[in-house]
Amino acid sequence: xxxxxxxxxxxxxxxxxxxxxxxxxxxxxxxxLGGRILAPFFGSSVHIWGSIITVFMLSLSLGYxxxxxxxxxxASLNRYGLIFIxxxxxxxxxxxFAPWLMEAIFLAIEDSRYGSLVASMALFFxxxxxxxxxxxxxxxxxxxxxxxxxxxxGKLYFVxxxxxxxxxxxxxxxxxxxxxxxxxxxxxxxxxxxLGVCAIVFNRLNSSAANGLSDTSKTQGxxxx
Amino acid sequence: MNKLTCSLLLAIVTNFALSTxxxxxxxxxxxxxxxxxxxxxxVEQSNGLxxxxxxxxxxxxxQSCMLIDDPQQLVFNYTKMLFTSxxxxxxxxxxxxxxxxxxxxxxxxxxxxxxxKITNVEIDPAVIKVARNYFAFFENDNISTVAQDGRIFxxxxxxxxxxxxxxxxxxxxxxxxxxxxxxxxxxxxxxxLLSANGVLAANTFSVSDLYQYESxxxxxxxxxxxxxxxxxxxxxxxxxxxxxLPTAPTMHATAQALAPVLAKYNVDIIKLSRLMISTATxxxxxxxxxxxTDQYSPANLLNLKN
Lengths: 225, 306
Hints:
Largest interface: A-B, 33 and 30 residues
Radius of gyration of chain B: 19 Å
Strand order of the largest sheet of chain B: 7-6-5-8-9-11-10-12
Shape of chain B: globular
Pfam families (chain B): Spermine_synth
Structural class of chain B: alpha/beta
Oligomer: heterodimer
Shape of chain A: elongated
CATH superfamily of chain A: MFS general substrate transporter like domains
Number of domains of chain A: 1
Order of helices and strands of chain A: HHHHHHHHHH
Number of helices of chain A: 10
Protein name (chain B): Polyamine aminopropyltransferase
Number of helices of chain B: 10
Mean pLDDT of chain A: 91
Order of helices and strands of chain B: HEEEEHEHEHEHEHEHEEHHEH
Helix content of chain B: 25-40%
CATH class of chain A: Mainly Alpha
Number of domains of chain B: 2
Radius of gyration of chain A: 20 Å
Catalytic activity (chain B): S-adenosyl 3-(methylsulfanyl)propylamine + putrescine = S-methyl-5'-thioadenosine + spermidine + H(+)
Subunit structure (chain B): Homodimer or homotetramer.
EC number (chain B): 2.5.1.16
């Protein structure tokens, strides 16, 4: 079933690349805004960036592991879309509860190094773990044979890291000049959820189309194998 | 993902290479240079004048200067302009200085108000060390120095219910503005920290698009304030008060009383008082100007636009 989708459906791979690009864009956009969000409570010293980058790296690494594991059973575009929706939801507390959360941490922890580390954890750990799951899961959906797997992974890293680069520069050069921090975060969240819904709808449309054509595709599949 | 780290490293390396190059060609004698966590720190000396600089390339980044034979003299006009705060509160007992530089302001204030408690807050420990070693920065029981981000210091001071009669905000230089020290929320915190008769003096810049945003933000928090500007200088001093601004005759009387004391430090308070322009009479920015907030504070980007 999943193999059929991988091989036959046109536009599925470009969609996955687009989603991976967008997740890269959002991850770095959020990371950059992290400095802005923490500054009122924890200042703008170097250790703020230490805390933020540490938390993002740590969560991404765990996300990679979790995403890879998740992709081993019943991988589907449907579940892939769900990851995006969950990521979008997990980002929202950054916009709605950040000051409240940071104030509690500010009162509890005097040292701004550990304060900023705990605050970064509280705000960014869960969404970034979920966003980290996207890369390995994308590889699972894109790879069709062993020979091209390295190339597919390379192309995926290219697309998602390019997204990260653009997310960094566009957020820091322009978005902060045009919009409020929370508005940008909410747009990132909405984009992730919308893309997730797109993936799910795309999957539905194609599986109903595939059901209509199921006879021909099955015979073709048999012939090729 | 690693792009941020890489570009940061690259920026640091090029910055360092550039400063080393320029060091060699500088005419003044460099008596100390070091690279701290935050910046390049240089101490230069020529013709009996010793200056602290943060970036060699730019001419607008002299932080603090001291006449070696006469350390009490205030060298910069902007430091003298800060004294117009005294026309609102002539006898500050608790003074908070955010942004130490060479510590010259703290030293001078100690001379003028020997009984005052002065707290200096400086984010960069290396700057504190340089102030002590090269600028005769003086500390005793009444004068303390905290190596901390100004915003955090103010938040913690509020929790401890501290109050200050005079807050001097001197954390900006021509190259970089700590954006979280220019927002409405920050100014509200600073205002809460002021005593009933307290006054806040901020050394900032009077050019670029930032002017209107900054002005609108100060007005939203403090109501009307004084602008203190000189013709051929990029600096502007904002003098804001916790209560309504005093009337011209009151300030004139205060200036007369203070003049003899301040003259010793090369501060002509009567002349300076004429530079004070109240925003009640002269509002030189558009009424609908946006505010800087913790949500919207691209101060450095706005400062690029003229």
